[in-house]
Amino acid sequence: MKIRYIYHSCFLIETMHSFLLFDYFKHESDKADFDFMKLLSVIFSSPKALYIFSSHSHQDHFSYDVLSWINKKPNTYYILSSDIKIYNRVDNLYIVRPGDKLTLNEIKLNNFGSTDEGVSFMVNIDGLNLFHAGDLNWWKWADDSPEEEKTMEDDFKNIISQIAKFGVTIDVAFFPVDKRLENNYLCGGKYFIEMLNPKLFIPMHFWDNYETIKDFKKAMSGYNTNIIEIRHPNETLYANI
User: CB of 23 within 8 A of CB of 55?
Assistant: First the structure.
């Protein structure tokens, strides 16, 4: 399995028979390890199926541009959260909500909730469990009221409990580590690792603040989870699982 970081919360996972693209909204022009547009051309010409996941409608997690890609690649499948508004007919479209299950070709999907909009995804493919959190996080802002803090904490821990009860080992987790939360940026990722013990944790939703990942990895050094340090957009990450 090959994992490529595109930008923000967007990752491309390539398996033997499939491409899985999560939360695409744009790519950076810096070629770095690869040129995204050239890579996209390779994907369009590949016999492998393309699965496009969008966890919710926020502009940094979804782009309507992806809906035209099926015109270039007929074996493209869209798995979109129910809060995303679709105005025209789209083939191979699957709308999902928290609690939904979906089996699609070689993919088994279970959808969990979010502490913002939309869903989080648990994808089983090739015997591996991949979790993409979308905007599921412990959003503990400095100016929250005590009531807001308590509601957020309860909602977040409840969803994590549901994931734990699902009872699978998470091989790869993509989860927000957002320094806009200031000193609270560790809360969600730390709790996720403590409760779910994923084998591999890949930070996301840090915008262009790559120092955040170094800080997070250092803070989590006492845990068994392997934390990937991302250094730039369009970076190829190899996961030996």
Answer: yes
Is 217 in contact with 229 (CB distance < 8 Å)? yes
Per-residue pLDDT of the chain (241 residues; tens, 9 = 90+): 999 999 999 999 999 999 999 999 999 887 789 999 999 999 999 999 999 999 999 999 999 999 999 999 999 999 999 999 999 999 999 999 999 999 999 999 999 999 999 999 999 999 999 999 999 999 999 999 999 999 999 999 999 999 999 999 999 999 999 999 999 999 999 999 999 999 999 999 999 999 999 999 999 999 999 999 999 999 999 766 5
Domain ranges in the chain are 2-238
Which of 131, 137, 99 has the alpha carbon at shortest distance from 117?
Answer: 137
Give me the CATH topology for the region 2-238.
Answer: Metallo-beta-lactamase; Chain A (3.60.15)
